[in-house]
Amino acid sequence: MTHHPTARRALLLSLATAALLAGCQSPPPTxxxxxxxxxxxxxxxxxxxxxxxxxxxxxxQAILPCNGCPGIAMSVQLRADxxxxxxxxxxxxxxxxxxxxxxQGPFRFDPPAGSMVTLGQExxxxxxxxxxxxxxxxxxxxxxxxxxxxxxxxxxxxxxLSQ
Length: 163
Fold this sequence. Notes:
Blueprint: H1 5-23, H2 50-53, E1 58-64, E2 72-78, E3 83-90, E4 101-110, E5 116-119, E6 128-133, E7 136-140, E8 155-161
């Protein structure tokens, strides 16, 4: 079976035209991906770090261990604008209940890509330090960030989302 040269040229021309048109198509649409989170201090994108991956903003509460009293009621509110409110109060016992201690002010992630939040001004000793995880925070040594015990006794559970 022989092909006519004109038919062969027409077939080659149509294949070449189809290939050219396929190459000229616009690329497939991209997803609507938000830009990476930029650190407010200008250090570049944070990427997948606790500050951007965890739903950390909200209120956390627990009754923490206390020497000489039934416990310390603690409530910590971490706000999306990186300010915090902490209230703590000694419970019951033989003595009068102590008035609530309160902290209200800024906090920062330490290190910036880490799971530790430090409450207080940068130039001052920290008021509090907490390890942040999904659904809970843990009170840590305010100077070193070390765990206070090997048990979860100092964990505060998330009770509500940030306002």
